[in-house]
Write the structure tokens for this entry.
Amino acid sequence: MAYSAEKAAAFAYQGHAGSVKNKDEKAAIHQIELDEWNHRREVLAMMNKYEVPVSRYYEFRFHVIGKIISTACYVIGWFMPFYFAGRLESGNVCEYFRMMHFFHELNIREHDQVLYEMGIKEKEHEVYFYEQIKNSKALPFFEKIFSWGGKRSFNDVDLESKYSLEASDAYCKK
Ligand SMILES: [Fe+2]
Ligand SMILES: [Fe+2]
């Protein structure tokens, strides 16, 4: 699912980057799209190693979802694509740390570095999107309804004082 969801995210960011007018925003969102394609490659490498097949169902489903979000970015205004991207990224952070926990249960530590980097990268994405909308008047309302914003996040990673790779097992335990 992570493999296919990364594709949905990458498609969504194509539409998002295409729909914003500001050059810096366009470039930053395009970079995030490239990061997601990168994650997809990393996840595929792990799947191949353990002979986990790609799900044709998820590939189709997330293809459609990604394209719908991509198109929606052109019609739902400036704020919402940033808000929901940040909210989604917030939830993605722990996916990779949880994957690390599962590997640790099997005493497999060789993927720690890659999973750590992917988890931290998703956090950087979350922070980027939050920074763009943090002063927006719509944020308090959206934060109340959708449970993400300045005071609420779906992970316990703090980039200002982030744990080392070795200590990062402590993330996302709750
Ligand atoms: Fe990603
Ligand atoms: Fe991301």
